[in-house]
Amino acid sequence: MSEQHVRNVKGKFGKTIQVRLVSDLKISKNYYRDVLGCRVDDWGHVERDGMILILQQAKTSQDVKPNAPAKKRNDYPTEWEGPDFGWDTFIHVNWNDLDLLVEEVHSKGGKVAVEPYVGSHGGKEFKNAAFEDPDGYMIVLGAMRDISFYE
């Protein structure tokens, strides 16, 4: 193979899996299984549909660090300036599934930190909600659709 060919060939990234340090692995595994309806194995692998995490026991509770809110920006391609709270996981969902997922988490006693709300920017309508896990990690659900389609 020529040197030029080697420089142009790139490897491919595989599926992204988030690793999350938790203060109590047993409590977190139970939450993701019993409240969010995930498959959870003894290793701490958590999976439901497209959401995949690996839970790992933190050495100390100080090592558990959910994301703080991001700095607001005025340079996005739309009028949106960024989220009002920290996002640890963002999951795209179907518009109609968002309410079903929130209802499911409510029914299982989970904390819905941000109830569903609808807004718009850039010609798109969005609907978001957020769950908070036992360590304060925010799992944001987001759906979007083209406003002009519904006008």
UniProtKB/TrEMBL annotation:
Domain VOC, residue spans: 12-144
PROSITE patterns: VOC
Coiled-coil annotated spans: none
InterPro entries in the cross-refs: Glyas_Bleomycin-R_OHBP_Dase (IPR029068), Glyas_Fos-R_dOase_dom (IPR004360), VOC_core (IPR037523)
Record Gene3D superfamilies: 2,3-Dihydroxybiphenyl 1,2-Dioxygenase, domain 1
Listed name of the protein: Catechol 2,3-dioxygenase-like lactoylglutathione lyase family enzyme
Record organism: Metabacillus niabensis
